[in-house]
Design goal:
By secondary structure, this protein is α+β, with helices and mostly antiparallel strands. The protein has helices spanning 2-9, 13-29, 54-67; strands at 33-34, 44-47, 69-73, 76-83, 86-90, 107-110. It has one domain.
C-alpha cells in the first residue's frame, strides 16, 4: 500500500481533487442502510451487491484505504476516511474474495 500511497501523493493536486470528487459522488449516490442491529453505535452501510458497477465499489474501497487513517474500534483496526460530513470505512478484508473461499470486501460503512 505504501507504493500506492506514494504514487497517489505524487499526483498533481488537480488530479487528486478530481478523484476526491468522484469518490464523493460514488459514496453519496450509493444505497445506504441503517445498521439496526447496532443502535448503540448508529451508522449506515452500503453493500457491494447494490452498486451498479462492481469496479466503482472496488475503486471506492481502494480510495478509502489509500487516503484514510488507522482507527481502532472495539479492539479491531480499520482504515477510516473523512469526507464531507461522514466518516467512511471498509471492513478490512481483501477486496476480492480470497482463493480459500473467505470473505471479500462486501460493504462500506459510514457514520
Amino acid at each position: 500500500m505504501m507504493d500506492a500511497k506514494a504514487t497517489f501523493e505524487a499526483l498533481p493536486e488537480a488530479e487528486r481533487q478530481a478523484q476526491r470528487e468522484r469518490l464523493a459522488h460514488l459514496l453519496e449516490s450509493a444505497a445506504w442502510r441503517f445498521a439496526r442491529t447496532m443502535p448503540q453505535n448508529p451508522h449506515w452501510y452500503t453493500l457491494r451487491e447494490t452498486w451498479a458497477r462492481d469496479e466503482d465499489f472496488v475503486w471506492a474501497v481502494e480510495q478509502i484505504r489509500l487516503r484514510g487513517y488507522r482507527h481502532q474500534f472495539q479492539g479491531h483496526w480499520y482504515v477510516q476516511f473523512d469526507l464531507n460530513a461522514f466518516v467512511y470505512w471498509s471492513m478490512g478484508w481483501a477486496i476480492a474474495a480470497s482463493t480459500g473461499g473467505g470473505p471479500g470486501s462486501t460493504r462500506v460503512g459510514r457514520s
